[in-house]
Design goal:
By secondary structure, this protein is an alpha/beta fold. The strands form 5 sheets. The protein has a 5-stranded mixed barrel. The protein has a 4-stranded mixed β-sheet with strand order 6-2-7-12. A 4-stranded mixed β-sheet has the order 8-11-9-10. The relative contact order is 0.16. It has 3 domains: 1-30 and 71-156, no CATH class; 157-292, no CATH class; 321-504, fumarase, CATH 3.20.130.10. A hairpin with an 8-residue loop joins strand 18 and strand 19 (471-485). Helices cover 32% and strands 24% of the residues. It has helices at 12-28, 32-44, 48-67, 97-109, 158-161, 175-185, 204-214, 221-227, 232-245, 330-333, 353-364, 404-414, 427-435, 448-452, 492-504, and strands at 8-11, 77-85, 88-91, 121-122, 129-130, 138-144, 149-156, 165-169, 194-202, 260-270, 275-282, 288-293, 321-324, 341-350, 377-379, 418-421, 439-442, 455-462, 471-485. The protein starts with 7 loop residues before the first strand and ends with a helix. Helix 11 crosses helix 12.
Length: 505
């Protein structure tokens, strides 16, 4: 007599509830392994600027865990990997697994207790209209042996996703050499220190998928180096990790000892004539979690222990110059030097991609601008909506190079004193900054909630229809930045990594 085993029943509501809960969870909790590796990087960092940036990321991480608010204002494009056991029965699904995942995404991002920023635009070629709820997610479904459903949920910020790399190498080429060569071309817009996922083999799309999936694995580089590699792939991981850190790029590209905390490598059989290789970086706002549905209800995730975070002080004026933005002049900004740290207080303007495009179009047509930029600083940011008694939600910097194409006209025509953003500027933007006697300041990517606590008031001044991309006026107090490009063209993203690369040699 054959025994019939009842399949595990997974309900639609359990999947939706678990996806929503996981996305909320990863919005404000770093994985415990990331916190541990970053704390070790802080302890051994010798570069003052990089050490301060890592400290801000760690302080921000703890604040987000305690306040249940997003680690980064860019709450990401959602990637979900679903492995459905072949012995599972799905119950109550009105549509597909993908639609159920999107129901969970929608619920998570519209949660009034912790609103997450909607960043997804449909019609990517033309209208680019925001969908308003961060759907659709990018979902991969696989049927596997077993009687459970395993789900990896990841929220991937645009700054790191934009730095992904792909190539088809010759079979005799060195993967390590190619990866190490690619990392400097990625700049600092991916917000190091983070981790790199490397996919090797298959086809073009398979290699990219392998790289992305590898980022869901726990960081274990500290343990791996302590015990030594057990196979060739582990030895390659260590080799690439050490060679990248020897480049001296450091936290936020400021120059330092740690650029990557871990390197993951996933492989798949490939054609004899090919070696597809992909790199996908994960930023300082590393956000992912795995849960398993076994038919007993929604999955619950365990928060990291408060003991994981080192006890670090908030930035103060003891090592930074205090600046009054309300009385700031070009003569004062001319005294700043690249690498110097500042604490800004007073009124600043905000504006990022869409606002800059609109301003540029208005300047080209000779139209008056709705805001007077003379003697002001403009901050590249798209904040999260506030909740409860917040003045503004998490509001960390966005990647500044996307504004480079507008910088020359903006500086020459508006009288703006300088800009605040994340990571390096391109050569043309640096020339425009020096030619106009302006400055570029870098705030720490991955410290969005910490930065929001420096904002005392916020109001929309123009382009309200652009939502988070509108022009705001922030009143700030002790807003921490580093002078990235000074009025003479001195550039910390050039001399910082160069100095630490020499030091590591």
């Amino acid at each position: 007599m054959t025994t019939v085993v009842s399949p595990t029943v997974i309900s639609h509501d359990d999947l939706v509830d678990s996806v929503a809960a996981a996305l909320q969870f990863i919005s404000h909790y770093h994985p415990a392994d990331y916190i541990g590796h970053l704390a070790q990087a802080y302890a051994r960092e010798a570069s003052g600027a990089a050490k301060q940036a890592i400290a801000q990321i760690l302080i921000n991480s703890r604040m987000c865990a305690e306040g249940r608010r997003p680690i980064c204002q860019d709450t990401g494009i959602v990637n979900v990997f679903v492995k459905v056991g072949i012995d599972v029965r799905l119950a109550g699904f009105p549509a597909s697994i993908v639609e159920a995942v999107n129901d969970g995404v929608r619920r998570a991002y519209l949660d009034p207790d912790n609103t997450l920023r909607a960043s997804i635009v449909e019609d990517p070629l033309f209208a680019r209209r925001n969908t308003g709820d961060n759907t659709p997610a990018v979902v991969h479904v696989e049927v596997v042996p077993g009687n459970t459903v395993t789900v990896d949920v990841m929220a991937k910020g645009g700054g790191s996703e934009n730095k992904s790399k792909f190539a088809v190498l010759m079979p005799s080429d060195s993967v390590a050499d190619w990866v190490v060569d690619m990392v400097p071309t990625m700049g600092a817009g991916w917000c190091p220190p983070g981790m790199l996922g490397i996919g090797v083999g298959g086809t073009a799309e398979k290699a990219m998928l392998l790289a992305k999936q590898s980022l869901t694995e726990p960081l274990d580089m500290l343990a791996l180096k302590a015990r030594g590699p057990a196979n060739a792939v582990e030895a390659l991981r260590i080799d690439i990790h050490d060679r990248i850190n020897a480049l001296g790029i450091g936290a936020q590209g400021l120059g330092g000892l740690t650029t990557v905390l871990d390197v993951k490598i996933a492989t798949y059989p490939t054609h004899a004539a090919s070696m597809p290789v992909a790199i996908v970086p994960n930023c300082a706002a590393t956000r992912h979690a795995r849960f398993v549905l076994d038919g007993t209800g929604p999955a619950l995730l365990t928060p990291p222990s408060p003991d994981l975070w080192p006890d670090l002080p908030l930035p103060d004026g003891s090592t930074s110059r205090r600046v009054d933005l309300n009385t700031l002049t070009r003569e004062e900004t001319a005294t700043w030097r690249a690498g110097e740290t500042l604490l800004l207080s007073g009124r600043m303007l905000t504006g990022r991609d869409a606002a800059h495009k609109r301003i540029d179009d208005m300047l080209a047509r000779g139209e008056p601008l709705p805001v007077d930029f003379r003697n002001r600083m403009i901050y590249y940011v798209g904040p999260v909506d506030p909740v409860r008694d917040e003045v503004v939600g998490p509001c960390g910097p966005t990647t500044s190079t996307r504004m480079d194409k507008f910088t020359g006209r903006m500086l020459g025509a508006t009288g703006v004193l300088g800009m605040i953003g994340k990571a390096e500027r391109g050569p043309a933007a640096v020339r425009a900054i020096a030619e106009n006697g302006c400055v570029y300041l870098a705030a720490t990517g991955g410290a969005a909630y910490l930065i929001s606590k420096a904002v005392r008031s916020s109001r929309v001044l123009a382009f309200a229809d652009l939502g988070m991309e509108a022009i705001y006026e922030f009143e700030v107090e002790d807003f921490p930045v580093v002078v990235a490009v000074d009025a003479k063209g001195g550039n910390v993203h050039e001399h910082g990594p160069k100095a630490w690369r020499i030091a590591a040699a």
